[in-house]
Amino acid sequence: MYKQRGISIIEMMVALVISSILMIGITQVYIKNRENVLFQQSQGQNIESARFSILLLEQTLTKAGYRRTPDQTMETAFPKENAGDCGVMETGQVVKRLSETAFCVRYQPAFPDARNCAGDNIADIPEKAYVEAVPVTEKFELANGELTCNNVAIATGITDLKFVYGINTNEEKRISRYASAPEADDNIRAVKLSILTASANSITQDSESKAYVLWFSKDPEPDDKRLYTMLSSSTSMRNLLP
Questions:
Q1: Whole-angstrom distance, CA of residue 93 vs CA of residue 137
Q2: 0.85 exceeded by the pTM?
Q3: Number of structural domains, the chain?
Q4: What angle do CA 100, 104, 105 make, to 5 degrees?
């Protein structure tokens, strides 16, 4: 009879090497698949946040200067007032730039039970049509990664906002030039807006991001590995144009 023999050290080492290679390969596949899933989820969240923010801003900007009675002058419909966080709104002024990432608009609510951008009911709206209403002032601002309306967060994951205003300096309802910082006597007729969103966590393997580089041309190296997405749009103040 032959004596029973076990596995030699060489065979064991070969088996361990093969097992290690297989485990490393499986781990890499898992990590890659996980990164792809997180990338797709984060990209979808970034696009959703950007589109929602752009849609809300466009809807608000198109309401700027709306009057329930079309024959009412802008000066009569929107008198000079102290509008809280928006400061003093001059007579007839319905759009005011506060900073690079904040602005205010004024409009008259179109119908009863209307709500402002924060979701609150607007009070004292006449039931009868073609009757003037008290103007509503709304302030939009980017604060701590959130787009806020009247200090209420309405969208998250927003890294930065950029506005370019179409303006003129007379009563003609047309755009003569665009500027990122209008003067006090400029009349804002349109707005080009861009939004940069970012994922909540690090997604990419390196810190380089084309969207980040295009946005911050003077500082092309992001300090994290989050996924950045950039969307742009433009809208006109239809109540301030022909």
A1: 11
A2: no
A3: 1
A4: 135
Residue 154 to residue 148: CA distance in whole angstroms: 5
185: left (phi over 0), alpha (psi -120 to 50) or beta: alpha
pLDDT tier at 72 (50, 70, 90 boundaries)?
Answer: confident
Could you tell me if residue 28 is inside a domain? Answer: yes
Which residues lie below 8 Å from residue 78, measured CB to CB, with a gap of 6+?
Answer: 65, 89, 91, 92, 93, 94, 106, 135
Instruction: Give domain status of residue 43, yes or no.
Output: yes
In a domain, 16, yes or no: yes
Q: Tell me which residue of 232, 224, 239 sits closest to 193, measured CA to CA.
A: 232
Does 4 fall in a domain?
no
Structural domain range at position 198:
9-240
Query: Amino acid letter at 231?
Result: L
- Decide: 220 and 212 in contact? Cβ < 8 Å: yes
164, 174, 145: which is closest to 242 by C-alpha? Answer: 174
Query: How many residues are listed for the chain in this entry?
Result: 242
The residues near 108 (Cβ < 8 Å, ≥ 6 apart) are 66, 67, 68, 77, 132, 133, 134, 135, 136
Helix ranges (DSSP H) in 64-143 = 74-77
Instruction: Say which residues have a Cβ less than 8 Å from residue 75's Cβ, sequence separation at least 6.
Output: 91, 92
Burial class (CB in 10 A: 0-12, 13-18, 19+), 195: buried
> Strands 146-149 and 136-143, how do they pair?
antiparallel
pLDDT digits (tens, 9 = 90+) for 39-53: 788 888 888 888 888
